[in-house]
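Ticket 4471: requesting a sanity check on a complex prediction with zinc ion. Repro inputs:
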Amino acid sequence: MTEAKKSTAKMLRCPTCGERVTVKSEDFPFCSDRCRKIDLGKWSMGVYRISSPVMDPDLLEGLEGNERE
Ligand SMILES: [Zn+2]
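Returned C-alpha cells:
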C-alpha cells in the first residue's frame, strides 16, 4: 500500500495519451516525443482558434465599415 503511494509520487500521466510517465523520462511530462508534438499541436491550434476572431483587424474593420454605411 505505501509502496504504491511512493511510486505514484514519481509518476505522472502523459497529458496526451494518459500513459504513466516517470519524472526521469527524457520526454517528461510526456511518455514520448510523439505525444509531446501532439500536445504542442493542440495548443497552437487552440490559441489560433481563440485569438483569430477577436484579433483579426481586417474582420473588425469590415464590420465597422458596413455598419457606418
Ligand atoms: Zn503519451
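Notes from triage: Residues 14, 16-17, 19, 30-32, 35 surround zinc ion (CB under 6 Å). Leaving this open until the requester confirms.
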